[in-house]
Write a structure and sequence with these properties.
With 182 residues, the protein is α+β, with helices and mostly antiparallel strands. A hairpin with a 6-residue loop joins strand 7 and strand 8. Helix content is 17%, strand content 20%. Strands 3-4-5-6-7-8 form a six-stranded antiparallel beta sheet, with helices on one face. A two-stranded antiparallel ribbon has the order 1-2. It is built from two helices and eight strands. The chain is flat.
Length: 182
């Protein structure tokens, strides 16, 4: 390190750091030019997602690749959906009236779960589509399609891999009193 002179006589000099150069950078070690990458043979590949056939490379925006259960595994999807609906119902049990005046959870036919927050806050609706093995959620914050992730057994958004329970938790703590017990 070298020492810079103080701009004013009453201040002590401060150390200056030298910038390091990367190997292969101009003026770097040995004057070598950086190695060239091999030519690309096209965009990176990723798994095909069950419901939409959409391909999303796992390296876009730091999102991980989602590996959904096969569209033909309806029994596993149905069991996971039923367990999720029960989990959501239990997680919100302590937040119902009188804690939150309008909070209501209703299950319609085993394939639709509604979380009603009241006239001003809106409704979350989860619809299990067993033909495509997806959960479609409509909410005051938007619409999302979730698939059952093969390795974890969690429902994750098919395009970017965010957790359904995570998004629901985040939204609910912003809109109601208390914290869901997931």
């Amino acid at each position: 390190m070298t020492t810079a002179q103080a701009p004013h006589g009453d201040l002590p000099p401060r150390p200056q750091r030298r910038k390091r150069r990367r190997a292969g950078a101009p003026g770097g070690s040995g004057g070598r030019s950086p190695a060239k990458a091999p030519p690309s043979s096209g965009p990176p590949t990723a798994p095909v997602f069950g419901s939409s056939g959409m391909r999303v490379p796992s390296n876009i925006g730091g999102h991980r690749a989602v590996e959904p259960v096969a569209d033909t595994n309806v029994p596993r999807f149905s069991a996971a959906t039923s367990a999720l609906f029960d989990r959501i119902d239990a997680a919100l049990l302590h937040l119902r009236p009188p804690v939150n005046e309008f909070l209501e959870v209703e299950l319609d036919g085993g394939t639709i779960l509604r979380i009603k927050l009241g006239p001003e806050l809106g409704t979350y609706e989860l619809h299990a589509d067993e033909d495509r093995c997806v959960l479609e959620m409509t909410s005051p914050t938007g619409s999302f399609t979730y698939v059952l992730e093969r390795s974890t057994g969690d429902f994750v958004e098919e395009a970017d891999g965010h957790s359904l329970v995570g998004l629901l938790t985040r939204d609910l703590i912003r809109q109601i009193q208390g914290y869901p017990n997931f």
